Amino acid sequence: MTNGTLTVAADNGLGNSTNVTVLGGTLELKTQYGIADTASLSISNGQVKIAAGLTESVGKLFINGVQQASGTWGSTASGATHTDDTHFSGNGKIYVMSAPPVSVTEATWNGEGADTLLNTAANWQGGTAPVFDGTLRAIFGTGGTTATVNTAANLYGITFNRAGSFTLADGDGALTLGAGGITAASPDTASRIYAITEEITLKANSTWHVATNGAGVTTLAVSNAIHDDGSDPYGFTKTGAGKLTLSGDSTYDGATIVNEGSLCVTHPNALGSTNGPTVIEDGAWIEMSGGITVGEPLSLPSDKSTGFGGGLRSMGGGNVWAGEIITSPIGSRITCYAGSLDITGGITGSSSICLSGSGSGSLRVSGAPINIPGKWLFLHSSTPIILAVTNNAWSILFIRSNFVRTDLDDVLPPSSSLLFEAVNNTGLDLNGHNQTVGKLTAQENTGLNMALCSPTPATLTVNQTESTVFHASITGAVTLVKSGSGTLTLARACTTSGDFVVSNGTLAVSATGSLGENSTNIWVAGGTLSLANSAAVSDSAALRIADGGAKVNLLAGVNETVGWLYLGDKMQRAGTYGSTSSTATYKDDAYFSGTGILRVLHDKAGTLIKVR
Questions:
Q1: What end-to-end distance do the CA atoms of the chain give, in Å?
Q2: Which of 14, 62, 410, 609 minimizes the number of CB atoms within 10 Å of its CB?
Q3: pLDDT for 609
Q4: What separation in angstroms does the CA of 346 have from each of 59, 285, 322, 398, 411?
Q5: If 0-12 CB within 10 Å is exposed, 13-18 middle and 19+ buried, where does residue 588 land?
């Protein structure tokens, strides 16, 4: 722009443009997402005004053609590290991620000195100690196994490429790292571990590249704390297919971005403060272990890009992810491979999420809800998954393998669908807690163990308007309430001791289904109970059909037996009942339909005995 004012409103932006130039006038930013993070912002005679409370990120900043330092920029009122009232106004800030290039020197460690000290001249090729002034890339690649940081080492970057494991060890000095970052790359196909045990202070955003070489796995293990220099928030981007392990008590405020391979954390603060998020890009993943609680905001990669292995993986110990988790736009996965994983910071996003597990562990969601309205929650696990939080939002809960447990009432969104895949040992354990769903379905199968269960009394209300078939059993102490205008067909034999209640629509029992011998209270308060076989209801059950339109539909050939019958609030006499289309003794189209017969064994006078 060259003149006047261009305002970028709160709900707008400049798109993916990578060059934004202000030659005159004012560029006014009312959003911190107005300029792409990779863009170069150039200001000459104009000015950029940033609204209070905002921090807009850009890749590079040029003022009058000269690239400026990384960090925060703004007016003196903004509190930025770098202030310039000529080119900035307002109370917000511009965060510049990339610093100007520097003239880099290199020095290679050979470890030929009498000690392992970093400033010993004989330990460096040429016999001269380098100057640690921020322009040096230190290369640890020729000899020795350890270099001890005993001086103030201000490095532009570090390279590990020795044909053997190497440690940059904690000493009585200090290690500062610039924009050159870290490269760890084994020179051959052997697996290597390169370690840094000294604290690291970041003075710029940088790339940490951990490469693999054929079958060998390169590991960069950083066991001490990582800080930024206090002027601005700095972080790093991990690239390469190798493994980066962080286990220090870190405080850095910048973002942690993983573009490739794995990032392993074993300390609660390994990812720094919660001011900077952790972003896992497609093809990468993060592992946690050791019984830690991490409060970091986390953005996950797509599920397919990780080979369906999980963007967040719990590898051992009782771990907790307490920060908010954001799904990829095309779906993500969280997996517990060992120990336990408790997700307490909530899951949000515009796509579906899969929770899975293997081995002997368990995965639990508590604290904050899963908020993915209109999307699917897939639970694919050979280990228990526990849902212990309310106010969740999803459209379909898809359960595949193992039993999912609810630990509170109203965990399931009341308008959502509950779907069981046809896989052995699949189901939902209500665990004594009442739930409501908008639709219930189980895929057709033969002989698989699939069940809706609860060890103690619990009620599932199915308020559905569509017609579905449930090819699974209802066991334990579950009470099923059918509401809504749709039809729910039970296609398997049930063993629950709970009740069956029809309040609207139709609850149908197919030719292969039954309510089971243990359920002795059957209530038709509204709608229709439809029976397609003669063993659908326990012979000792009490069947109650309310006044006002509730009915039992007895299909052709059905000769069902119950213990007691109540029409309205009145117990009926022993005998046979049905519609006027049946051959029953007592015919009443107000309560019955179809051509089948209902045989009632007991009344106040005693028991009906049929003599053939």
A1: 100
A2: 609
A3: 54
A4: 31, 19, 8, 19, 14
A5: middle
Q: Phi and psi (nearest 5°) for 318?
A: -90, 95
Which residues are paired to 365 by β-bridges?
343, 387
pLDDT in tens, 85-140: 999 999 999 999 998 988 999 999 999 999 999 999 999 999 999 999 999 999 99
pLDDT of residue 606: 63
- What's the pLDDT band for 612 if we cut at 50, 70, 90? very low
Q: What residue type is assigned to position 43 of the chain?
A: I
Distances (CA, A) of 201 to 57, 137, 204, 226, 270: 22, 16, 9, 6, 14
Which residue in 127, 133, 135 sits closest to 151, CA to CA?
A: 133
Element (H, E) at 458: strand 458-463
Residue range 285-312, pLDDT digits in tens: 999 999 999 999 999 999 999 999 999 9
Burial class (CB in 10 A: 0-12, 13-18, 19+), 605: exposed
What does the alpha-carbon distance between residue 327 and residue 355 come to, in Å, rounded to a whole number?
A: 12
Q: Please list, residue by residue across 117-135, b when 16 or more beta carbons sit within 10 angstroms of its beta carbon and e when fewer do.
A: bbbbeebbbeeebbebebb
pTM for this model (two decimals): 0.90
Q: Quick one: DSSP state of residue 39?
A: P
Cβ neighbours of residue 92 closer than 8 Å, sequence gap 6 or more: 29, 32, 50, 51, 52, 53, 54, 55, 56, 74, 78
Name the phi and psi angles at 185, rounded to 5: -145, 115
- Among 408, 407, 430, 433, smallest CA distance to 418 is for 430
Stretch (H or E) spanning 8: strand 5-8
Q: What percent of the chain has pLDDT over 70?
A: 99
Per the DSSP assignment, residues forming a β-bridge with 501 are 481, 523
Q: Which residues pair with 272 in a beta bridge?
A: none
Average of pLDDT values for 314-337?
96
User: Could you tell me whether strands 206-211 and 293-294 are parallel, antiparallel, or unpaired per DSSP bridges?
Assistant: unpaired
HEC readout, 142-185: CCCCEEECCCEEEEEEEEECCCCCEEEECCCCEEEEEEEEEEEE
Instruction: Dig out the tokens for 281 from the structure.
Output: 């890009």
pLDDT tens across 187-199, in order?
A: 999 999 999 999 9
Judged on CB neighbours under 10 Å (0-12, 13-18, 19+), 374 is exposed
Classify residue 84 as exposed, middle or buried by CB count within 10 Å of its CB (0-12, 13-18, 19+).
middle
Which residues are within 8 A (CB) of 432 and not within 5 positions of it... i.e. 6 or more apart?
Answer: 454, 455, 456, 457, 458
> Which positions ≥6 away from 271 have C-beta within 8 Å?
246, 250, 256, 265, 278, 294, 296
Confidence of residue 604 (pLDDT cuts 50, 70, 90): confident
CA distance 33 to 55: 9
Question: What is the three-class DSSP state of 305?
Answer: helix
Q: How high is the mean pLDDT of the chain?
A: 95
Would the CA dihedral through 87, 90, 94, 99 be positive or negative?
positive
The DSSP element (H or E) to which 67 belongs, if any, is: strand 66-67
| Residue 561, number of CB atoms within 10 A of its CB | 19
Q: Write down the residue that tokens 């049930």 correspond to.
A: 494
d(CA 580, CA 560): 17
**The residue type at 198:** E
